[in-house]
Specification:
By secondary structure, the protein is an alpha+beta fold. It contains 20 helices and twelve strands. The chain has a five-stranded antiparallel sheet with strand order 6-5-4-7-8. Strands 11-10-9-12 form a four-stranded mixed sheet. A three-stranded mixed sheet has the order 1-3-2. The radius of gyration is 32 Å and the shape is globular.
Length: 514
Amino acid sequence: MTYDVPVMEEYLAETYGINVYQEQVMLLSQKMANFSKGDADILRKAMGKKQKAVLDKMKAQFIAGCKENGHDLKMCDKVWTDWEAFASYAFNKSHATCYAFVAYQTAYLKAHYPAEYMASVLNNASNLEKITFFMEECKRMGLDVLPPDVNESFNGFAVNKKGQVRFGLGGLKGVGEAAIESIIEEREKNGPYATIFDMIKRVNQRAVNKKSLEALAMSGALDCFPELHRAQYFHKPDGDNTNGLEKIIRFGQQAQAGSQSSGGLFGDELMPEIQSPKIPPCDPWPLTIKLNNERDVTGIYISGHPLDDYRFELKYYNMNTIAEVLEYQHQLSQPSDNNKGRERSFRMAVYVTGAVERISRNNKQFGIMTLEDYTGKFEFALWSEDFLRFTTHFKSGLCLYVNGAFKPRRFNDNEYEFKVQGMQLLQEVKRTHTRKLGLFTQPQHITTEVIDFLVDNAAKHPGKCEVYMQLIDPQEDLTVKLHTFNRHIEMNDELAHFLEQQPDIDIYIDTINK
């Protein structure tokens, strides 16, 4: 093993030549540059708190000491640069040992008890952003995170019998502790609830009131009763003043009152059984309404995401994530000469969660728009001309394609703002942004079904998009490219869905940048 400066071996041998602990920097500064113990401690503190002025002063002292001891100054300068980078993650040895031990324990739990571990992590997440982050980690691990369920959920996140993580009832707005205790206690005492009518007869309706039931229905906690879907609990038919949930509550009150009044001799025989009401049918909520209601109660999307229907666009149309946008925005906010003249465009597939109109000091309309995707949230302003230009898309609840770039502010070149260059409904992107469609596969995978579908789809959706197919024979090391010179198509949902169901055909889309 080689060391930048030979004398470093004494303190870096145990960590294979790498600075790992703060104590190593302190000891090396004393050995290489004659720092006193007090100076070495000041160096440690300056690195930990990133005190640039102190570090610059101590660098001169370090180089001078190294020169005095006859070390290679070029290598000593490299050592100092490494220390500056090391400072951003440095710990003292005792702390590092404790962190390493905890990291080993949690890594073991995550590997061998993934569902239980992630449920515990979710229960200790301090805010919604962290809960969302950890839920995405569950998806990456292949763990299901299910919506709340009155027959499975406990107060916090928990693991069900199938090894899936179930959202807790304690995370629902409008469902109090008394309601949660009543639901869980009755379920554990007398078994799962068979129907919503069985549940409403058994729980304490003073605790599980209308507000609690509305939250349970909106969150999906009543989806375990398949005879009703979420919209039916809130549907009021024409000429009826009560919705489904109010009918259910009234039935529960009557059933409990009847049960209490039948306590006398032969009372059970005299009281006829109260029939459960008929809940009028209606159309289920569209996905966006269902998810928005779910989010209103839980704070996050659980059973899906508004962008789920646009995974094809996200995968094949060179979309940037909001996490990338935020990272670039953070880079621009750092003082650096490298930022000058930097303009990078971003293409995003997003869901609009906020669209607020404002009036500027010049009495002009502008808007604050909030966009979300799977990775985060991004907010920016649409000023006068842009606000008028994109006003048709300035609405919450829309799935949009947004193309824009960070540009210097008009009166301050050191600050950047996001300027929208294009905006349209995400459902239009396949039609408007597909220049060429390439299909890559081996000859044996071009079946009659594939050929018939492609021919039929091309006849139904003529357009300007060129389609080509590249056949690959790995055994013969041959590649043949087939073009459709006289028949172009318009990219469409039916074709996208079909191609996604063909695991042996790889898809490439040459996009139109606008």
